Amino acid sequence: VFGKICSEYNLTYYGTAIPSDDSDYTPVRGLTASPEQVDDNYSRGIISGYPVQLLQRTHNVLLSNMPEHNQTWTICEIDMHRQDLPHFYLNGLSDDDQYSSVLISFLRMYEIDLASLGQPILDKFRDHFCLYITPDDIPAVQQLFTLEIQNMLASYFSNIDIEIDGDKLYIYSVEKPIKL
Q1: 141 secondary structure, DSSP code
Q2: Comparing C-alpha atoms, which of 82, 91, 109 is closest to residue 159?
Q3: With DSSP H G I counted as helix, E B as strand and the rest as coil, what are the percentages for the chain, rounded to 5?
Q4: What is the reported pLDDT for 178?
């Protein structure tokens, strides 16, 4: 799958990348980053003028109320060339990813219901996503989630998670590889 994506979008495929061992590797941060990470199917390049990195990352997740589990994410990082976006995490309510809310807690983000703040929210958006942000970023995030954006996300992207942090957009998929 990654070979086909790399070929179609003219990305360079590097295979397995270990950030601690590879000085040429540009680490993909985001919610799933850790000092022990090993990234498989690491690929990068430029798509429509935007630097893109694509990979698969697996973490051994141990929660007190669940058995140990290896969670694999397919991650696409896009450099959006912007610095003024707030940090938020939009969790697609997928049954396959019960670990994101735990990882989010380490970032000191909280689930925020924008409707409780007077923001119009579509029912289908509320049914498919939970929004995590820091309280300081509430005003900026409210401006981003217009009804049009909510409709687009709920209609086409409800099976993925989205994180924006500064100039980086992270797209996470746990169900199947991302289709660009």
Answers
A1: H
A2: 91
A3: 25, 35, 40
A4: 47
74/126 Cα distance (integer angstroms): 24
Asked if residue 38 has pLDDT above 70, the reply is yes
The answer to whether residues 89 and 109 touch, using CB atoms and an 8 Å cutoff, is: yes
- Using the structure block, give the residue that is written with the tokens 């807690």: 105
Taking all residues of the chain, what is their mean pLDDT, rounded to a whole number? 84
Cα dist from 91 to 2, 107, 110, 123, whole Å: 24, 14, 12, 16
Q: Tokens representing 48?
A: 């429509």
Residue 179 has pLDDT above 50, yes or no: no
Calculate the alpha carbon distances from 8 to 2, 3, 47, 55 in Å. Answer: 10, 9, 10, 16
Angle at the Cα of 52 from the Cα atoms of 58 and 18, rounded to 5 degrees: 40
Tokens in use for 118?
């007077």
Q: 82 exposed, middle or buried (CB, 10 Å; 0-12, 13-18, 19+)?
A: exposed
Give the position of tokens 């500064």. 166
Q: Return d(Cα 167, Cα 119) in angstroms, integer.
A: 25
